[in-house]
Amino acid sequence: MYTLFHHPMYAGSRMVRLMLGEYGIEAQFHEEPVWERREPFLDVNPAATLPVMAHFENPIIGAQVCVEYLEEVEGSKGSAPRLFPEDALTRAEMRRLIDWMLLKLETEVLRYIVRERVIKRLVPESQGGGPPDSQALRAARTNIRYHLDYTDWLAGTRNWMAGDTLSCADLAAAASLSVLDYLGEIRWEDHAALKEWYARMKSRPAFRALLADRLRGIPPVSHYVDLDF
Length: 229
Prior knowledge:
Number of strands: 4
Mean pLDDT: 96
Oligomer: single chain
Number of helices: 8
Strand order of the largest sheet: 2-1-3-4
Order of helices and strands: EHEHEEHHHHHH
Helix content: 40-55%
Largest sheet: 4 strands, mixed
């Protein structure tokens, strides 16, 4: 049995949830408030980062580590197509794009948007809570533009993000963009190819759990759950 410690607004957590869904793997889910630095969680992961996936009480830490583990252990068991391409060059491109989404997009955009708009509402002022920093939000929103332009180009020149078949690159991109979409940070009308690709991702059964996410006091934008948006 798998147990995933996650947060709904963390892209890495969403990516692992998508992979579990694509492979039809049953799991238990625990939302972990990492800012509280709970001792039982720190005993498992002293870095206090998400996601953490436990498999028969053995911790697997980090989104990329989790998906590599799931591919090795579960990828050959089910009837679903494998999410790691067979071709070595396409696998390399997939890993490059995972790195782009979970590191570059995270550090330049998501970290600030989520911290300022979500986390600061959840933590006391003594721990960094309070009103959002408008300068941080402005910088993140400036950075969003070229990330959307680049992923729009990928969506317009390829069938899927890394090539001809669905891969973990698509899961990483969809997980990251879905956080921004929940918060209404994407102007989809400016990125037609990306919007068409994202609509395909939203229509997949594995995506249903993400569309059901709700944050207390922070509802999603009206089109978040719409498959034809």
